[in-house]
Amino acid sequence: MILNRDILIGIAIAVLIATAVGGFNYWKKYQEKKLDEVAELVYLYEKGELKREDVEQKIKGTPYYAYFLAITGAEPSEVVKHLEDDDLRKLFVEKDAFGVYSEKKYEEALKELSQINKEDFNYPSALMLRAFINEDRGEKKQALSLYEELVKDYPNSYFARIAKARSLMLGKD
């Protein structure tokens, strides 16, 4: 009797494990199918076969939504809200900062740039933009300080070469 009970418990555990694995695999396939359907909608939009409003409601809340916003010309600040990848988010933050800088909204641009830290991949370009803002605001010392930081911390970069040239233009030897 004990042997039969142990066998039944073993079978029950095996069935539970198989059901869990099967359920997980089913859910994974279902999610993949849904993402494929969303990708197809975005593709059809890009080909011009669907209208924005037809696609937008169906893909809201999916991983493709931020991409869709970006390709449809949404403001970078709107795209940022829907990005999960931190590097992409920082890239769009910088893009947004450049947009407001171009409109001479310097304080707003600096506020955006404050979200980009030294550890971020795009810190040198954000630092360069901060220097440009300081230059445009007539804050020569702050701009020079940022250019010096670029040259010191990223000596072989494109940004260091620009920083050297800008420093010379500002009158620093």
Instruction: Tell me the major beta sheet.
Output: none
Tell me the overall shape.
Answer: elongated
Terminus-to-terminus distance: 94 Å
Integer tally of domains = 2
Low-confidence stretches: none
Question: What radius of gyration results from the CA coordinates?
Answer: 26 Å
Task: Describe the protein.
With 173 residues, the protein is an all-alpha fold. It has two domains: 1-74, no CATH class; 85-173, Tetratricopeptide repeat domain (Serine Threonine Protein Phosphatase 5, Tetratricopeptide repeat), CATH 1.25.40. The protein is 75% helix and 0% strand. The protein contains nine helices and no strands. Helix 5 runs antiparallel to helix 6 (106-113) and helix 8 (140-153) packs antiparallel against helix 9. The chain starts with a helix and ends with a helix. The mean pLDDT is 88.
Short description:
This protein is mainly α and 173 residues long.
List keywords for this structure.
173 residues; 2 domains; mainly alpha; 9 helices; Serine Threonine Protein Phosphatase 5, Tetratricopeptide repeat
Topology, element by element:
Blueprint: H1 2-46, H2 52-59, H3 65-71, H4 76-80, H5 86-102, H6 106-113, H7 123-136, H8 140-153, H9 158-169
